[in-house]
Design brief:
This protein has 502 residues and is α/β, with parallel strands linked by helices. Among the domains are: 68 residues, Luciferase, Domain 3 (Luciferase, domain 3, Roll); 94 residues, 2-Layer Sandwich (GMP Synthetase, Chain A, domain 3). It has 14 helices and 26 strands. A hairpin with a 2-residue loop joins strand 1 and strand 2. Helix 7 packs across helix 8. The N and C termini lie far apart (51 Å).
């Protein structure tokens, strides 16, 4: 099977139906997107001499070209490696080297510097080069890789969750079963990066014959959100909780009116939604919100709360005493996936008892690309160990209470402290570093670095160094200089004490 079949089938079924929009302009019908994807696929096979299973990276901001390239990559039987556009050149180079991508499409000239094994191509390939066209998509086995989803790793290096065509098909079906019904005129707005969650949502919309919209400008702002919603009907989108909060605050300030009737579904996830924030969002948007809990290893499909379930949830958090820290359920498991709460020794725990959230099913990744050790640690006896701690109630609702993984979720994006610590330790005079998350009303959490130095160092020094060596969203928002870090008898840094200091 090949997920490119979604486009191939629907291009014949309804060729004139809108597939891609830029602002209010139609960029592609299903027929024209299919034609462009076939030509890109032929270009990659013939001009680039790529074979099925070879990796092709995409390092771009959201754009119609992004969708064309993904579809063309799959038509040719290749593996897409979307890369977060906020990453620095060294971070991008690591992913290109690790995935052994032979081609990367990018509009960033600096990416080509010191790059040895990967050819850099512009996102828009000339008409002359796109001469021939594939007769049909390249057949792939259901467990052959289709997308390598790079996520930060606790060892300081990103890990590539390998998602097969079967993984993506099961994910798309789960979305259509539990979250959204899609038909002609239903449109997905890409406010969030297509290298991550928003790009994955492309597939169920292609499967069901919906449209994809790249807003103008493509960058998310509350103003752009309102303008886009007011200009289109039957809109769905993925937003991180912090994005939802920003829009609510903007609308509550009285700046603009929102055509709420144009909203079909706002799917939120990627971080905790506090009770007060959800209560306010339901007041503003009504019952068009749906929650998903997932991760790159089991994308957007571990549990979900549909729009109707939010009505009951609203009753429990409305009125006097809404507590922003109140723990809310993250939904019930998708029917195509098994979920269990397990103790450290693997014992299955009963309802109400906290343990590690473990899942298995066709949605779970095949493993980490070129990283057997991490794969063995994460996929155990057929179960994916999520690294999240929680419990189930009698009705099967999952509550997340803690994280085993040392991860900070800021603005819906995972930031692993080890990754930041490794870079800060390279700065001259820095002897020890420990990075933790601090709760923040706007971002959920922000990064704080506790630093022990043997030389005179300022916050500006470290901040400038971080800006040069890591993506801006990862860098600490503040630095705390201390004489020593708290440790236990075995010399392990006690991050719980650092969090207490905050």
């Amino acid at each position: 099977m090949n997920v490119a079949n979604y486009l191939e089938v629907n291009s014949r079924k309804f060729p004139e139906r809108t597939a891609v929009l830029t602002g209010t302009a139609v960029a592609h019908t299903y027929a024209s997107l299919d034609d462009k994807a076939r030509k890109i696929g032929a270009f990659l096979q013939e001009r680039m001499a790529l074979q099925p299973g070879d990796r092709v990276a995409v390092f771009l901001p959201n754009s119609p070209e992004y969708i064309e390239l993904l579809c063309g990559i799959w038509y040719a039987g290749l593996v897409a490696v979307p890369i977060n556009y906020k990453l620095t050149t060294p971070e991008v180079h690591y992913i290109l080297d690790n995935s052994e991508a032979q081609v990367v499409f990018s509009d960033r000239e600096d990416i080509a510097k010191d790059l040895e094994c990967t050819k850099v191509l512009p996102p828009a390939i000339s008409v002359d080069e796109l001469g021939s066209s594939l007769e049909r998509h390249c057949f792939r086995g259901s467990r052959d890789p289709a997308w390598i989803f790079y996520t930060s790793g606790t060892t300081g290096k990103p890990k590539g969750a390998t998602l097969s065509h079967l993984n993506l098909a099961a994910m798309s079906s789960s979305y259509l079963i539990g979250i959204d019904s899609i038909g002609e005129g239903d449109t997905l707005v890409h406010f969030a990066p297509m290298s991550h969650g928003s790009g994955l949502y492309l597939l169920p919309f292609l499967m069901a014959g919906g449209a994809n919209l790249i807003p103008e400008p493509a960058k998310f702002t509350p103003e752009n959100f309102v303008a886009t919603v007011n200009s289109h009907e039957k809109l769905s989108m993925f937003l991180a909780p912090t994005m939802v909060r920003r829009v609510v605050d903007y609308l509550e300030s009285g700046n603009q009116q929102l055509a709420v009737e144009n909203l079909a579904t706002i799917t939120y996830g990627g971080g905790p939604m506090y009770a007060k924030d959800l209560n306010d969002a339901l007041d503003v948007f009504g019952y068009c919100l749906a929650q998903v809990y997932g991760q790159g290893e089991s994308p957007m499909t571990i549990t979900y709360l549909d729009r109707n379930q939010h009505r009951s949830l609203k009753e429990s958090i409305s009125g006097v005493g809404v507590d922003g820290t109140q723990i809310l359920p993250v939904g019930q498991p998708h029917p195509q996936l098994e979920l269990a709460i397990r103790a450290e020794d693997g014992t299955f725990l009963p309802d109400g008892q906290d343990g590690e959230v473990c899942v298995r099913g066709d949605i779970v990744m095949e493993g980490y690309w070129a990283n057997q050790e991490a794969t063995r640690e994460t996929l155990v006896d057929g179960w994916l160990r999520t690294g999240d701690v929680g419990h189930l109630d009698a009705k099967g609702f999952l509550y997340l209470t803690d994280r085993l993984k040392d991860v900070i979720i800021s603005g819906g994006t995972n930031i692993y402290p080890r990754e930041v610590e490794e870079i800060l330790l390279k700065y001259p005079g820095v002897r020890e570093v420990s990075v933790v998350g601090k709760r923040d009303p706007d971002w959920g959490e922000v990064v704080v670095a506790f630093v022990v130095t043997s030389a005179k160092t300022t916050e500006d020094d470290l901040d400038s160094f971080c800006v040069e060596n890591m993506a801006r969203f990862k860098r600490p928002k503040s630095y705390r200089f201390v004489e020593e870090l708290p440790k236990n008898a075995y010399g392990k840094i006690l991050k719980t004490e650092l969090r207490t200091l905050l």
